[in-house]
Input
Amino acid sequence: MAIMKGVFTSISGRVGNTIYCKSGPNQIIKTAFIPGNPKTKAQTTDRNLFASLNSEFKILNDELVQPFWKPFMTASHKAWSSFLSANKNNMVNTFDLTKVILTKGSLETVPIDYVAFDETAKTLDVNWNSNTLQNGSADDDVSLVVFDHDSNILLYYNLKCAVRSDSHFLITLLDSFTGYNLSVYAFSSIDSASGLTISQVSNSTSFDIGDYGLVMSFVDNAADTSTIQLKDLDDNACKVDWGDGNLQVISTSAETESLITPTFVKIYSRNSLSYFKTTNNNFCFNVSILPCFLIYLEVYGSNTIFGYLTSLPSSLLTLRLSGGTVITGDVSGFPSYLSSIVLFSNNTCFGDFSDLPSFITKVLIGGQNKINDYSSPRVWSNNMDYVQLLPIAGFGLDSTEIDNLLIDLSGVTTWSCSKIIDISGNNAARTAASDAAVATLQGKGVTVTTN
Output
């Protein structure tokens, strides 16, 4: 800018990039200001980030931001502006729900140990460490907030829903939730003496459960350790919490041993559960809690597995249970697609042996079963492997039923693997009526054991 002297002392207006104007008695000349591009990539990104923050968090302004930020702001720093600024700086130009800062403060934090999502009940069980090492206390208020990454929305918030000593809080009413990508936030606070404001608040802590959801939860009474093999419907490994809040990766490459002496088992997977095998355990659960798409179930050891045959998943192809198993029901209630049944221990199955699923190629039923009938004829699957029926005393097949069973089994085209028939025990003896059938079976390499 300059003062212009000479004959041209009454000029005003703009010529090119030069502006002429009067300032008191002086004629002024200055260069026109050329504004920068208001739509640069950086400015657009910045505005989009602020827009996203406003869109997602405005609902929290009255109930969370104002009471938990305002008491700690100076006159020149407003609660909402400070909240937005803190989150913008933390997210660095890209809106990211995993980097949300809900609260900032000096009170001891609430460390989240794990979050269990129940896909059937649509609940979240948020568990935190209630120990205090600094300035926290057992009666500090605990607040919880949940964000859904699949839809980038605030899914749930509940302020002062628990106290620190509760150690956990069950979030319900999540019927519309269909995914697993969640961030769960927890923070603690203390009211002022008057109860009108928040006197102290902690930094918010978060737990991202990713795409793993809880598919099973049950007690483990093991005296030392347990082992397990798992995979989901996409053949992915699963994760198991043995009772200490840590997640151990479990696959089917080997039967993995627990890192601690378990107290309970929580199984998480990306896509339900298809394979469950354990041979060293003391699991206790009702078969009704098994995931509905389970294909393979093998549980040996000192377990206490109980329930009804009709409660087994309809998708099951392989069932192998022993230990302290207490399963009951008519054999007609086995899942219709089962091809392999191994059932011992305290099972009390009953009914007609010919009512087994039509795809069976291997069946070993012992224990306390009360199977007492066999209705002929039955067409057994080709490529049979093993048939064993050993009922409890006072039950079993009579001689005619034994003969008919052997005759029907002799019609099987191919036997493979074990090639064994064992219908001895408390069953009746066979008669000459099944001599030809036994000879045929033996010609196919089958070992036949009867009374």
